[in-house]
Amino acid sequence: MSEDNNKATIIVFSGDMDKIFAALIIATGCAAAGMDTTLFFTFWGLNAIRTGEPVKAKGFLGKMMGIMNRGGINRLNPSQFNFGGVGRILFSKMMRDKKVASVEELLQTAIDLDVHLLACKMSMDVLEIAKEDLIPEVENVVGVATFVKEAANSKIQLFI
Amino acid sequence: MSEDNNKATIIVFSGDMDKIFAALIIATGCAAAGMDTTLFFTFWGLNAIRTGEPVKAKGFLGKMMGIMNRGGINRLNPSQFNFGGVGRILFSKMMRDKKVASVEELLQTAIDLDVHLLACKMSMDVLEIAKEDLIPEVENVVGVATFVKEAANSKIQLFI
Amino acid sequence: MSEDNNKATIIVFSGDMDKIFAALIIATGCAAAGMDTTLFFTFWGLNAIRTGEPVKAKGFLGKMMGIMNRGGINRLNPSQFNFGGVGRILFSKMMRDKKVASVEELLQTAIDLDVHLLACKMSMDVLEIAKEDLIPEVENVVGVATFVKEAANSKIQLFI
Question: Which residue has the higher pLDDT, C58 or A159?
């Protein structure tokens, strides 16, 4: 098989801490195996690559969403057993106890392993998230056509 | 690469408005890129291709499910920030404000781009949904064997 | 196409009854079509391959998780319309009425069709689940590198 399709493309739709964790583990695993790996963040997944600073949305709905859904890799809640925010602390503690990397450390590892971080333009528009609201390591803001092209040439494509 | 595997096959399991939106965006993106694209609707995903008319299920449980889970592309609720149905209106407004197509328009676009709409026979049986409860654009009601055959010959396969 | 990539690899992240059902239907469909099929259970998906016996975790958090999240294929709840546990019974009844196999029977069918059951080491560590807490049919406890290798050589890869 030729090298040019030794790729992995993962759509990160979910903003749940446990799913972001899974996405980052798989992405770093692919990169460690020598694959050219791309994480394509869309909708709630964008929260994982937001700075966590308050959003500067102008519209009323964008402001509301910015408050309810502030983002930042340290503010993600798990999909199960959240208990109004306690779950995040519980899981973080269980991961630390087991010497498993935190989601924040995993995101840094992904960046260090040259995993490409792409953000979906359309969902940023809908949720009123600007390029400045994202961490600087995000390579590009792209449309679905870019995702389709990458995914069609990838050995691994997942929707998380 | 031969033309005969220039395919994309997407399982739509979720009935959440935001995930249906993502599935339709990806499907229309694949079709626009010239791929032979199939959406395979199963379980809650079937709601996106239901007429929205009251279900004529005969069994007690089927009737109950028909009331709680009426379906229709305009009745889908988002997975996050639903607030008892207000979320649907909020997201629809945000999408309209940003001049993003609605899920209803996207479904029509997918149909116009010859995306194949298939429905899963087994989950229709379990949820007591009949062929007449689905929109006429649904090409076929099929089993898992059809999905496996399509997916194994596709460059892109996703579970949404 | 050579026989050696006639594979399907499915990550089972979710512990929802309906998603486990979908994963098992797809896996048995792939196996029935002659594909070498692997289910890679991680996080909440591990519940589907737990014995259902009380967990013998030593740590406080592990004990708490063991109580809240006991596992066992017969204790899974659906993602929708759960109503505090009634949904499980409702769906089981609907499936029985329609003569559809239960999740428990489907798991056995998957085993009979030589579907490989693998468990994710890292999530077992985090959730304090030991090898003895899993059903004996689980072939192996593995890391992400094993998944990546399998998935990169598979025609079908899904994240459920």
Answer: A159
β partners of residue A51: none
Rounded (5°) CA angle C69-C127-A77: 80
User: Nearest CA to B149 among B1, B2, B7, B3?
Assistant: B7
Q: How far is CA C86 from CA C22, C57, C78, in A?
A: 20, 28, 10
Which chain B residues have any C-beta within 8 angstroms of a chain C C-beta? 11, 13, 15, 42-44, 59, 61-62, 65, 68-69, 122, 125-128, 143-145, 147-149, 151-153, 157-159
Nearest CA among A72, A43, A67, A42 for reference residue A55: A67
- pTM for the whole structure: 0.90
Q: Rounded to whole angstroms, what are the CA distances from B94 to A43, A62, B18?
A: 13, 8, 12
Task: List the structure tokens of A35.
Answer: 């694959």
Report the distance separating Cα A147 and Cα C129, nearest Å: 37
Q: Which of B111, B149, B118, B135 is nearest to B50 (CA)?
A: B135
Distance CA A72, CA A52 (A): 4
**Which pair of structure tokens corresponds to residue B124?**
């229709």
Q: Rounded to whole angstroms, how far apart are CA atoms B20 and B95?
A: 14
Q: Which helix (H) or strand (E) holds A12?
A: strand A7-12
Q: Give the pairing of strands C116-120 and C156-159.
A: unpaired
Task: Report strand pairing: C36-41 vs B7-12.
Answer: unpaired
Digit-coded pLDDT (tens) for B104-144: 999 999 999 999 999 999 999 888 899 999 999 999 999 99
**Angstrom distance (rounded) from CA C136 to CA C149:** 24
Is A61 in Cβ contact with B90 (below 8 Å)?
Answer: yes
ipTM: 0.87
Which partners does chain C have (≥3 C-beta pairs < 8 Å)? A, B
Tens digit of each residue's pLDDT (9 = 90 or more) over A64-113: 667 767 788 888 888 876 666 667 777 777 778 878 888 899 999 999 99
